[in-house]
């Protein structure tokens, strides 16, 4: 007798219908017409069942702080950093913790059960580090949090960053971060990358740097990040976040750069919701979109994942931590409307993100953790199109969240029709 069986699932790769058997915290069978009984059953009725969404780039310490500072009038990254800097002295550990915890509730409801969050280490009190380390522990039954030591005010530009970053890593922060484009000069940016990569190599840690989040086509710190990755043999363990300057770079230079990124197996993380709004603010018309070259990176075999980056903070006043909204925005900004391209945007918030985070217990297969979601959609394309309801969110074999299917009753002449916008409803009509 199993604990849970989900029958009639369509998987992300198109296999259907399959049944998923769960015993305790593990998936034990994935096969058509599974001959077993279970305590609890879910009829997926042909809907998409996939592993949980992963947000590969978020700032849990700034999330839901909208209104604590003044509004970001220019809408730029730099005004956001300045507003956050003004707010820093008044932040409390309890306040950061409570806001981040509220965000985690939203994440669970949205089926996002893994978050890589940057945590600002430029505050000498390391309040955010302590708050998010405590939250990482408390959330373990519900979702996994990976923390990145992020020197928001610059690793070289803010003199106490090296000491603070070391303290944060000693306390248990998982990943080495950086922000080379915010250093005072290109040389300082390059030096910061060198120093941070040495730390990661010495400590055996993963790396995820905010890199070239700029419209300046000459912001080329990704080149140093790649070179240092190869020098230290950290292939597959390093990510470049944002990489927006690549949008503005000369095509000839990019033709050299992308193969280098692929060679170093550096993952690229695009944050489409944020960069479509922050970048291009100095342009009149035409306005640059400001997202990195997702389509071209993927075509070259680079692992690309997407992040939400911000939810209601000095950089972005919107959002509800929905990774399907992120994927939806990415495919619009990147003009990725081909069938395989839309599917690859779904991969970018699931399997590709698992690769970015170096997760190995992820996916729907026997032996893997029983973490999965049932969506009100037939396939990944419909899920993105409708930003589909997450009907069941399951973590380690337990149902963490459930929602009723979304539909609207339309009175249509003498008829009453239920509209849910799915392809299945068109077939029935
Ligand atoms: Fe960020």
What does it look like?
The protein has an 8-stranded parallel sheet. Strands 3-2-1-4 form a 4-stranded mixed sheet, with no helix packed on it. It has 15 helices and 18 strands. With 429 residues, the protein is α/β, with parallel strands linked by helices. The model has no long low-confidence stretch (mean pLDDT 96). The chain has 2 domains: 2-51 and 363-408, Urease, subunit C, domain 1 (Roll), CATH 2.30.40.10; 53-356, Alpha-Beta Barrel (TIM Barrel). The structure holds fe (ii) ion. Fe (ii) ion binds next to loops.
Helix-strand blueprint:
Blueprint: E1 2-9, E2 18-23, E3 26-31, E4 38-43, E5 49-50, E6 53-58, H1 77-87, H2 93-109, E7 112-120, H3 127-138, E8 144-150, H4 161-171, E9 175-176, H5 186-203, E10 206-211, H6 221-232, E11 238-242, H7 245-248, H8 251-264, E12 267-270, H9 272-278, H10 294-299, E13 304-306, H11 323-333, H12 339-347, H13 351-356, E14 372-375, H14 380-386, E15 390-395, E16 398-402, E17 408-412, E18 415-419, H15 423-428
Parallel strand pairs: 1-4, 6-7, 7-8, 8-9, 9-10, 10-11, 11-12, 12-13
Antiparallel strand pairs: 1-2, 2-3, 5-14, 14-15, 15-16, 17-18
The structure holds fe (ii) ion.
Fe (ii) ion (FE2) is lined by residues 57, 59, 118, 210, 241, 309.
């Amino acid at each position: 007798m199993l604990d849970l069986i989900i029958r009639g699932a369509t998987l992300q790769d198109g296999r259907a219908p399959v049944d998923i058997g769960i015993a305790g915290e593990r998936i034990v069978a994935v096969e058509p017409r599974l001959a077993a009984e279970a305590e609890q059953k879910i009829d997926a009725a042909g809907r998409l069942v996939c592993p949980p969404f992963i947000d590969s780039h978020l700032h849990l310490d700034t999330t839901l702080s909208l209104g604590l500072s003044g509004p970001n009038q220019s809408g730029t990254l730099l005004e956001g950093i300045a507003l956050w800097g003004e707010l820093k002295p008044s932040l409390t550990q309890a306040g950061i913790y409570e806001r981040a915890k509220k965000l985690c509730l939203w994440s669970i409801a949205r089926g996002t059960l893994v978050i890589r969050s940057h945590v600002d280490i430029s505050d000498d009190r390391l309040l955010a580090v302590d708050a998010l380390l405590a939250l990482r522990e408390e959330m373990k039954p519900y979702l996994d949090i990976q923390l990145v030591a992020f020197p928001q005010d610059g690793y070289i530009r803010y003199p106490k960053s090296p000491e603070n970053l070391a303290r944060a890593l000693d306390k248990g922060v998982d990943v080495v971060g950086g922000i080379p484009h915010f250093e005072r000069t290109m040389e300082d940016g390059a030096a910061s990358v060198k120093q941070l990569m040495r730390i990661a190599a010495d400590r055996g840690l993963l790396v995820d740097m905010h890199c070239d989040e700029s419209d300046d086509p000459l912001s080329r710190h990704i080149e140093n990040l790649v070179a240092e990755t190869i020098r230290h043999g950290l292939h597959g363990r390093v990510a470049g976040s944002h990489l927006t300057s690549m949008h503005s770079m000369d095509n000839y230079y990019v033709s050299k750069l992308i193969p280098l990124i692929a060679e170093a197996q550096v993952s690229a993380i695009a944050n489409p919701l944020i960069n479509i709004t922050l970048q291009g603010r100095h342009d009149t018309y035409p306005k640059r979109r400001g997202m990195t070259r997702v389509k071209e990176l993927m075509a070259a075999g680079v692992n690309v994942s997407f992040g939400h980056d911000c939810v209601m903070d000095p950089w972005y006043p919107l959002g509800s931590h929905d990774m399907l909204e992120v994927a939806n925005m990415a495919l619009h900004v990147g003009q990725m409307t081909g069938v395989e391209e839309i599917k690859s945007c779904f991969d970018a918030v699931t399997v590709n993100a698992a690769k970015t985070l170096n997760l190995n217990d992820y996916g729907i297969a026997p032996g893997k953790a029983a973490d999965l979601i049932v969506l009100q959609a037939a396939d990944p394309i419909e899920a993105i199109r409708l930003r589909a309801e997450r009907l069941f969110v399951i973590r380690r074999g337990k149902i963490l969240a459930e929602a009723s299917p979304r539909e609207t009753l339309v009175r249509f002449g003498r008829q009453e029709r239920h509209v849910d916008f799915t392809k299945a409803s068109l077939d029935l009509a």
